[in-house]
Amino acid sequence: MALRLMLTRKSLASGLRAEPSVLLGSGLASQSRGVKTFALPDLPYDYGALEPAISGEIMRLHHQKHHQTYVTNYNKALEQLEEAITKGDASTTVKLQSAIKFNGGGHVNHSIFWKNLTPISEGGGEPPKGSLGWAVDTHFGSLEGLVKKMNAEGAALQGSGWVWLGYDKESQKLVVETTANQDPLVTKAPTLVPLVGIDVWEHAYYLQYKNVRPDYLKNIWRVINWKYASEVYDKECS
Length: 238
Ligand SMILES: [Fe+2]
Fold this sequence. Notes:
Elements: H1 2-14, H2 27-31, H3 56-87, H4 90-95, H5 97-116, H6 130-140, H7 143-156, E1 161-168, E2 173-180, E3 192-199, H8 206-209, H9 213-220, H10 226-237
Antiparallel strand pairs: 1-2, 1-3
Bound molecules: fe (ii) ion (FE2).
């Protein structure tokens, strides 16, 4: 079990597949080129471990189907990009940017999301302590104030997207932001670091909460991993 946790946490941290590079084209020149492919990271907990806040069925589908699809399509787009660059095909290089942003963003965001969650038995929902706890109180009055703000913004987000608690390295303040589709937080500003990201796509809650996104948002805080968020915050602040 300990070994599995070590391995899964390591793969979550990198998201990179330790495989031979994909070779494109032919001949000796192409053998020195290649792109690194990305792999679906394992979850550091079982699919059913977040119940009753998030059902095992949702977690399995979300991870095995949705996240996997982003990874697959991201790798495909990167391989096509490598080929287009090799050929000097500027038009295709530009055309691929939206697929890279969407699928690459999906992979980046979900890799953070899995780490933002943890079972109650492992500290899920335990309020942030130390410097992040102080910062939350300073910026939002209290943890309840932050939760209320994120839930309101997440519920109001039209269509699909994410609601984030981020740390702005420039202003050294905590911020709440939303992003559309699979845009990562950094697309809002390059100085933003995600601490907690909540997926508000319907695939994250519909099987359990139907169309009632506010109930999903209310319950997800029971399994938020504040220990992870605090580690990221402390690292950025040090
Ligand atoms: Fe998702």
